[in-house]
Design brief:
This protein has ten helices and 15 strands. By secondary structure, the chain is α+β, with helices and mostly antiparallel strands. The chain has a seven-stranded mixed β-sheet with strand order 10-9-13-12-11-14-15, covered by helices on one side.
C-alpha cells in the first residue's frame, strides 16, 4: 500500500508538472478563412492547428512566455501565451477584430490586446503623419503617456506589462522613423514623376507617359496585403464617383513573379476596376524604388503634366481624398 501511494503521488506530481509546461489553446472560428491556423513568432511558425468541420481548432503545446500572432488566412490577431494557460478564443472571421473574444486562464491579457487593436485602428495616424514636426512630437508623447496609463491601470501580469511597454516604445520609434520617411517623400512633390511601363491585366503594357493629360491616382498594393485589400471597396467607390472625369485610377501590384497567376485570378474574381498593372521587378522596379516604397498600401497622385501632386496621397478610405479630388476635378 505504501508503495502504491508513493507511485500515485509521483504520478500526480509528474502530471501536474507536465500540465504547467504546456498550454491548451482552442479557437472557435465562424466564417473561417482556412482549415489551418498558424501561431507565429514574427516569421517563425511555432504551431499549426488543424480545425474540424465545425471550425474548432484545438491543441496542447509548450510555449515560451510572450506575445505571438495568430493567422487565419491573411487576417491575424495578437496573442499573449504562457505555459499553464487554458485559453479559449472565439471570433467571426468576417468581422475579425471586432468579434474577437477570449475566455479562460489568460483571458484578461488577451482581451486587453484585442481592445488595444480596436483603439489603434481608430487612432488618427494619417492626420498625425501629416502634422508638422513640433505637433508630431507632442502627439507622440501624449500617445505614449495614454498607452502606458491604460496598461498600468488594467491589473495585468507584470511580465506582460513589461513586454507590452517595450512594444509600445518600439512601435512609437517605428512611427517616428516612418514620419521621417514621409517627410522625405514630401520632397518629391512638385517634381516630375518617373515613367513606368508595366504589364496590363487586360493586355499589353501601359506607361505613365501614355496617361499624360489626365490626373493619375496610383495604388501600390499586393494580393497578400490585408490593409491593401481593405481599401478595395473604397477605391471602387472613388472610381465610380469620378467615372468620365479627367482622372485614371491605376493599381500597381508588387506581387512576386511566382504569384503572377494569383494576381491575374484575383483581379478577375474581385472584378477590380481601373487600370491593373503588374510591376516588372516587383519591389525593385525603378518606379517603386524612386518613391522609396517599402511598405504597402501606398498611394500617389500625379497631375496631367506628369508632376507629382502628392507622393504620399490619402487612402481611398480617407474622406480627405475625395475633398482633394473634388477640388482638382471641378
Amino acid at each position: 500500500m505504501k508503495k502504491l501511494v508513493s507511485f500515485i503521488l509521483i504520478a500526480f506530481v509528474s502530471a501536474f508538472a507536465m500540465a504547467q509546461e504546456t498550454i491548451t489553446f482552442q479557437a472557435e472560428i465562424t466564417n473561417k478563412n482556412g482549415d489551418i491556423i498558424y501561431i507565429k513568432e514574427n516569421q517563425k511558425t511555432i504551431q499549426e492547428i488543424k480545425g474540424d468541420s465545425k471550425g474548432i481548432f484545438k491543441a496542447t503545446f509548450s510555449v515560451k512566455e510572450g506575445v505571438y500572432q495568430l493567422f487565419d488566412g491573411v487576417e491575424y490577431a495578437q496573442l499573449y501565451l504562457k505555459n499553464g494557460f487554458d485559453l479559449k478564443m472565439a471570433l467571426d472571421a468576417s468581422n475579425f477584430d471586432e468579434s474577437l473574444k477570449f475566455k479562460g486562464k489568460g483571458e484578461k491579457e488577451n482581451n486587453f490586446l484585442a481592445q488595444e487593436t480596436l483603439l489603434d485602428q481608430k487612432y488618427g495616424y494619417e492626420d498625425l503623419l501629416a502634422s508638422d514636426e513640433e505637433s508630431f512630437k507632442k502627439q507622440i508623447d501624449d500617445k505614449k503617456i495614454a498607452d502606458f496609463e491604460r496598461l498600468e491601470k488594467a491589473g495585468l501580469n507584470p511580465f506582460f506589462v513589461d513586454v507590452y511597454k517595450k512594444g509600445i516604445e518600439m512601435g512609437l520609434l517605428g512611427l517616428q522613423e516612418y514620419y521621417t520617411k514621409i517627410a522625405g517623400n514630401r520632397k518629391l512633390n512638385n517634381t516630375n514623376a518617373p515613367n513606368f511601363d508595366f504589364e496590363n491585366h487586360k493586355d499589353g503594357k501601359t506607361s505613365l507617359e501614355s496617361m499624360k493629360g489626365k490626373y493619375v491616382y496610383i495604388d501600390v498594393w499586393a494580393t497578400w496585403c490585408g490593409p491593401c485589400r481593405a481599401e478595395i471597396p473604397y477605391l471602387k467607390k472613388a472610381e465610380e464617383k469620378y467615372h468620365g472625369k479627367n482622372i485614371e485610377f491605376v493599381s500597381i501590384s508588387v506581387d512576386t513573379d511566382k504569384d503572377h497567376e494569383k494576381w491575374k485570378t484575383f483581379v478577375t474574381e474581385k472584378a477590380l476596376g481601373g487600370i491593373q498593372l503588374f510591376a516588372d521587378k516587383n519591389w525593385n522596379s525603378d518606379f517603386i524604388k524612386a518613391f522609396g516604397i517599402n511598405s504597402i498600401p501606398r498611394f500617389i497622385l500625379i497631375d496631367p503634366n506628369g508632376v507629382v501632386v502628392d507622393a504620399d496621397a490619402k487612402r481611398p478610405s480617407n474622406p480627405k481624398l475625395i475633398e482633394q479630388l473634388d477640388g482638382l476635378l471641378k
